[in-house]
Amino acid sequence: MSKTKQKQKLSDRITSIFTIASLGALICYPSLAVEIGNRNQNLSLIEKNSSSKTLELQELSSLTKPTDIIKSQPFLLAQNGGAPQLVEFRSPHKTTSYPNATYYMTMKVPPNSSAVGQVSVQQQTNVDTINLNLNKTEAFVINENNKKVKVPVTVTSSKNSSNTIDVSFDSPIQGNNTVTIALKAKRNPSSDGVFQFTIKVFPHGINPVGFNLGVGRIHIYKSL
């Protein structure tokens, strides 16, 4: 008999001896068989739970894709171009005490931005305070034919900040639009200088978080 066959035969005998010994132990000690069975069952449950957790994580991952995160936090990723942008803040009426002056604030709402529900304009402290006529505030967008389309707004004095007005759009401004808000002053200040306005924009929705759009500046010159 070759050495290879002898080794194989010896291995088979050893395996048989261990098998018989294991069966004998289970017969002599039934509790051991029960414990082994319980351990096997626990291992199966652990494996099942692990698979279930993996599926839950996969489902959670599918619900929190980057696009969904951007939608739920609309203006936080400004570096990705998803936030509105202040285009200009200007006035054709730049002399002191000019009556019924109008200040135009224009912002661009990118295609991938959430709808804009409100804009707040806070007048920074200066030697004079510009009194705005809230009832005459207007807003409009430029349509595809390059014509102005009036947008209904509701204007109120802010309860959270002094010298601040809140301009709420009756219909939220959707992405891929440029909107202009016309603020009507009763008259320009009697003092010359640079007058600044801090502008915040809020997405449409419940408890929105404001995004700082920037600072608009109007330079008022002494009238001749």
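(the above was protein one; protein two follows)
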Amino acid sequence: MLVEAGLLAETVRPSPNGLLIVVKAQDDSSAGAALNAAEAMLKARPAESAEGGVPSVPPRSLEMGLASMPAANLALISTPGGFDMGAAPAIVQFVGGTPRDAIAYTREMLHITLGVHGGFTLPPLNFSGSPAGIDVRKVVDTGIQPVINTGIAHRDAGAGQVGAGITRAPLECFTQAINAMAKNFQRTSNAEQK
């Protein structure tokens, strides 16, 4: 598609790890300067951390995590999950549902969040941001429980998944959070009045 649009030379073979840099400029010299600056940044050595040395890279695989924490026996893997299912119709079929369900889950989560995250845009929803920041008050007021999708990997590497599904966070934990917030607010108000 990029070749057909005249944006990529036929000799360049795109790959999953490729990086496409797009520059919009007033003229050719500005575009060239921007591309040169991007090239220099890509070739630059990472800045040193305050402690000295190159900052560590967060683990991006289980192998990297295990190498950084050999004694670990638990991996917590966090993704936007249920809130972003609208962008992953193939996943919803695996965990149970249809692409239409996936988009409905994402739209529903907009009713219980503080806003959207512009860094996680969803193409099937016209590139709107992913619902972000669960508001406990909205959860309790609407009764809409946050959707969670999950996959459980087999304990033996390479054996695949042993389960997957969609569930909801229990409403009770949000009700308890509201009650705790109210008590804390009451204590703070009483302390200020004294």
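Reviewer note on protein two: The mean pLDDT is 78.
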